[in-house]
Amino acid sequence: MKRLLAVIALLALPALAADVTGTWKATAEGPNGTMERTFVLKVDGNKLTGETTSSMFGKSEISDGKIDGDNLSFTITVKFQDNEMKLNYKGKVSGKEIRFTVESPMGGQTIEWLAKKVE
What is the pTM of this model? Predict the structure, then answer.
């Protein structure tokens, strides 16, 4: 019986949320060169909260954040030329890196971010 419980516990491990709590520095290539963004993430169960900052859009709060295993998603609202836009991020954690994709509402193109955990 103990062996069965141990096997069940091991099989359940991949379903646990990755611990992405902390500060992450990200870069992406845009039409005008390399862009930078900092993410400060907090995890509580499967809920993801925090904020993100960039030189272009300033600081934004993370909303609707979810984490499921190594997958995470959230929305931020940015202000661009007096217009508010929602950006929907999706990411995949791999060790001390997160690869994010976000669809830009300006032209509908996808931007790929690579975030590395700040130690």
Answer: 0.81
